[in-house]
Write a structure and sequence with these properties.
303 residues; alpha/beta; Rossmann fold; 2 domains; five-stranded parallel sheet; four-stranded parallel sheet; 12 helices; 9 strands; globular; binds phosphoric acid mono(formamide)ester; binds norvaline
Length: 303
């Protein structure tokens, strides 16, 4: 593994290796065991979009690993004024040891990886959010002690979260049911991948998708960059919500996950959110541990 660009690139074995290392690093952090695998290393973090969890977890994670993280706001870099990504990649490769980038276009992340000579980590694009899905799988395994054979249901927009969750969950042997309104289905390349799996379903009805689910996910109706479509999306996604009706058809011990930020009473009711807050904030915490594992695997001299 040279980069983390999208879940489609990872094998089941690589995903499991990341999750196992993440569990180990979490244990070490909780028990005060030093794990400074990235001493003297620097991660550059380029942000074209807002962030709370990604920024703070990468920066803190790098610090805990003995390294250093630079927050690089795209609007204050030359890339924000049109300097080509190919040049930015080659320049940053001369100074630092890894790049995390959050941006719009997946192609920009792929170009950074192609033209630079250091590992690139996708911190969210319009296409996918692999760091989030690694934390999600870690959290589900922590709560359920396994992944294989569990049923994952996602209700809502066929966006970056849906694209990466479907691929990640299928790769680790989970059953996947997505409920998306027509016109808001996942990416065509993702659907092509998913259709190889008999345990994949895409439906329009949230209740149908949620039946016997072990874990339910949702995400905002309008993602970053889609603010102008918010009103139209409120109409399109009406009913695409995790609520008591949906929970009633899932398994009695079903967990709920949300990548956050959440919009209460849109994609999830405040009641269900609070009833599952422990699982949701475990998920947020696990961003830190899963990303530390990714950085160690990509940036440590030992690997
Ligand atoms: N879930 C997530 O990526 O959160 P941020 O947008 O706050 O980084
Ligand atoms: N789909 C959301 C995820 C935020 C973490 C967005 O792209 O804004």
């Amino acid at each position: 593994m040279k980069h983390l660009l999208k879940m489609l690139d990872l094998s089941r074995e690589e995903i499991m290796e990341i999750l196992n290392l993440a569990d180990q690093l979490k244990y070490e952090q909780k028990h005060g065991i030093p794990h400074n695998h990235l001493q003297g290393k620097t991660l550059g973090m380029i942000f074209q979009k807002a962030s709370t969890r990604t920024r703070v977890s990468f920066e803190t994670g790098m610090y805990q690993l003995g390294g250093n993280a630079l927050f690089l706001s795209a609007s204050e870099m030359q890339i924000g004024r049109g300097e080509p990504v190919q040049d930015t990649a080659r320049v940053l490769s001369r100074y630092i040891d890894g790049i995390m980038i959050r941006t719009f276009e997946q192609a920009e992340v792929e170009a950074l990886a192609e033209f630079g000579s250091i590992p690139v980590i996708n911190g969210l694009t319009d296409f996918c959010h692999p760091c989030q899905i690694l934390a999600d799988l870690m959290t589900v395994r922590e709560h359920k002690n396994r992944l294989e054979g569990l049923k994952m249901c996602y209700i809502g927009d066929g966006n970056n979260m849906a694209n990466s969750l479907a691929v990640g969950c299928l790769k680790v042997g989970m059953d996947v049911s997505l409920a998306c309104p027509e016109g808001y289905y996942p990416d065509a390349e993702v659907l092509e991948f998913c259709k190889q799996y008999p345990n994949f379903r895409l439906v329009n009805d949230p209740i149908e998708a949620a039946k016997d689910a072990d874990v339910l996910f949702t995400d905002v109706w309008a993602s970053m960059g889609q603010e102008g479509e918010a009103e139209q999306r409120k109409l399109a996604f009406k009913g695409y919500q995790i609520n008591d009706d949906v929970m009633a058809v899932a398994k009695p011990d079903a967990m709920v996950q949300h990548c956050l930020p959440a919009h209460r009473e849109e994609e999830i009711t405040a009641k269900v959110f609070e009833e599952h807050a422990t699982e949701i904030f475990d998920e947020a915490e696990n961003r830190l541990h899963a990303q530390k594992a990714v950085m160690v695997m990509l940036m440590s001299d030992k690997n």
